[in-house]
Amino acid sequence: MRQHFNLNRDAALLGAEGYLLTALENQECVFDLRDKLERLVRKNVSGEATLENYHEFVSNNDENIRIHYKLSKLFWEGHWHLEVFERNKDFFQGLVGRDLDIQAKPHLRLARPEKPQDNIGFHRDTDYGASAYELSCVFSLTNLNNLSALRLVPNSHSLLEVKVTAVKNKDSEKDSIRHQLGVPYFLKTLADENLKKKLIPVPMKIGEVLVFSLAVIHGQEINKGSDTRWSIDARIKNSFIQSGSRSDYYRNFDTSPATQAGITHYKDNKQAK
Predict the structure, then answer these.
(1) Global confidence as pTM
(2) CATH code: domain of residue 231
(3) 104 contacts 250 by C-beta, under 8 angstroms
(4) How many whole angstroms separate alpha carbon 267 and alpha carbon 46?
(5) Would residue 110 count as lying in a domain?
(6) How many domains does the chain have?
(7) How far apart are the first and last CA of the chain?
(8) Could you please report the per-residue DSSP string of 79-122?
(9) Are 211 and 95 in contact, with CB atoms under 8 Å apart?
(10) Counting CB atoms within 10 angstroms of each CB, which of 25, 37, 38, 261 has the fewest?
């Protein structure tokens, strides 16, 4: 297991390389979340199913989407991710500040082995309108090796523009189930072959978190490992950063005393008028 987060060391790494990988101080909540999800998989798929061997029971793509969406809805309705942020609040606030917003409906990701349709390729979220001041936090729910892990290009957040291939996604419509699961209805994937050569895998263990700027090139084209990859992908930002996402994309998680005082001032004076 990697060392726990060190603000001076790891914050500098995030700024320089665009990403960091570290062990969470409080990992039990991630294991609890994993156990809860696996119980639901057994209930909805098979009593012998695990997160890792899920693909052995669900090979049909339509069935996979149906189950994936059902599990995601339960995940969203139960706000399962909030415990992870609450138990590790100092870490996340160390990255963006006390005024912390988190994604209201984080993506529950799954990628079965040798199923390219479970992935959206290499991309960066700023090409979809996100801000480079936002961060993505990936919590792996299965152990990932070089074959199954997410890949990224270190320091690619320093590039203002990258060459992409933009095509309409025939498998995803706006506001469709797949779109709600995090699959774009218009794909913008990396087209620069030289940058593709710089992609590196980021192996992870359960209890670790991968944090990267939304300007970093990342993704996966195909899971070449032997296990299904499960993870949670949740964005965070400082409350004062403007996001290109819709107004309900984020929810406020914590507010600094200075901001609370300012809100009170402007609210009270507005009411007085």
Answers:
(1) 0.93
(2) 2.60.120.620
(3) yes
(4) 53
(5) yes
(6) 1
(7) 57
(8) TTHHHHHHHTHHHHHHHH-SSEEEESS-EEEEE-BT-GGG--EE
(9) yes
(10) 261
